[in-house]
Amino acid sequence: MSLLRVDDLAVEYRGAKVVRAVDGVSLSIDAGEVVALVGESGCGKSSLARAVVGMETPSEGSVQYRGRPVPTLGVRQRSNDFTSIQMVFQDPNSSLNPRIRVGAQISEGIAAARRRGMEATRPEEWLERVGLPATVVNRYPHSFSGGQRQRIAIARALAARPDLLVADEPISALDASSQAAVAEMMRKLALESGAGLLFISHDLAVVRLIADRTLVMYRGRVVESGATDAVWNESRHPYTRSLVAAIPEPDGKGNLPAAPTVAERAAWFDIVPEALDRV
């Protein structure tokens, strides 16, 4: 049985018109596996992530964790059985409470693990595991850099001893020198604990470093999936090939690949360019 199984998932938002952010996506993750979901901003990656952890209610399809439906989060505290699903958000400034010391926030994760019968740990241990000194345990979030705050958010999630970790663009707010290091750290720490990791990003170069399998998402749909090396080296879908081609390669002149035109993108789906916003 897969740790996580998503079948024909759809997520819709209703306003003046219905927006179908996720359109029939299926995926699975096993324990000890890193699966990446890549695509441009607005393609539905975050909506899918929020549905996986129960922050959005599926319009269609299902999300199952260890064979059980993931309940939508409400005003009550999540049941102990599902605190083994944890999420790391894109912006640590909004996910960390500025009025609570970082050690106390990590202790919330530790408490969740203890309610599931796991042995007690200390906040200092988790700070050190994400590369921060134990001596900062009583400091507040505002005294850290953006990259350090993201490491604290990761420490808090890992302190809950999750079986499934969902990371929604966890490195996009970091400087370029930190992105690969933080991504590789997340892979290492997740796999050390035997957890599955769903790593969501728009950066295919970083994904190539850490993911066992990669799914490419475009306009709410998965257009290609497979082993990461195969997706990288043997891309079948034109959109995937455009992502790979857009990764800068030094040429000594500072030239970058040109973005695909509207007509080229429309041709991927055999439609007229004017209909691209409906794909």
Structure description:
The protein is α/β, with parallel strands linked by helices. The radius of gyration is 19 Å and the shape is globular. The protein has helices spanning 45-52, 92-95, 102-115, 123-129, 146-159, 176-192, 204-210, 228-233, 238-245, 262-268; strands spanning 4-14, 18-29, 34-38, 60-65, 68-69, 85-88, 164-168, 196-201, 213-218, 221-227. A six-stranded mixed β-sheet has the order 6-7-8-3-9-10, with helices on both faces. It has a four-stranded antiparallel β-sheet with strand order 2-1-4-5, with helices on one face. Strand 1 (4-14) and strand 2 (18-29) form a beta hairpin. The chain has a domain at 248-279. It holds the Pfam family ABC_tran. Residues 4-244 form the ABC transporter domain. It comes from Paeniglutamicibacter gangotriensis Lz1y. One of its GO terms (molecular function) is ATP hydrolysis activity.
Q: Which helices and strands occur, and which strands form pairs?
A:
Elements: E1 4-14, E2 18-29, E3 34-38, H1 45-52, E4 60-65, E5 68-69, E6 85-88, H2 92-95, H3 102-115, H4 123-129, H5 146-159, E7 164-168, H6 176-192, E8 196-201, H7 204-210, E9 213-218, E10 221-227, H8 228-233, H9 238-245, H10 262-268
Parallel strand pairs: 3-8, 3-9, 6-7, 7-8
Antiparallel strand pairs: 1-2, 1-4, 4-5, 9-10
Helix pairs in contact: 3-5, 4-5, 5-6, 6-7
User: What does the overall shape look like?
Assistant: globular
Counting copies of identical and different chains, the oligomeric state is single chain
Order of helices and strands: EEEHEEEHHHHEHEHEEHHH
Q: Number of helical runs?
A: 10
What is the number of beta strands? 10
Secondary structure: helix percent: 25-40%
How much beta, percentage-wise?
A: 15-25%
> Could you give the order of strands across the largest sheet?
6-7-8-3-9-10
Structural class: alpha/beta
Distance between the termini: 33 Å
Low-confidence stretches: none
| Radius of gyration (Å) | 19 Å
Q: How does the major sheet shape up?
A: 6 strands, mixed
Taking all residues together, what is the mean pLDDT?
88
Protein name: Oligopeptide ABC transporter ATP-binding protein
Domain ABC transporter: 4-244
Keywords: ATP-binding, Nucleotide-binding, Transport
GO molecular function: ATP binding; ATP hydrolysis activity
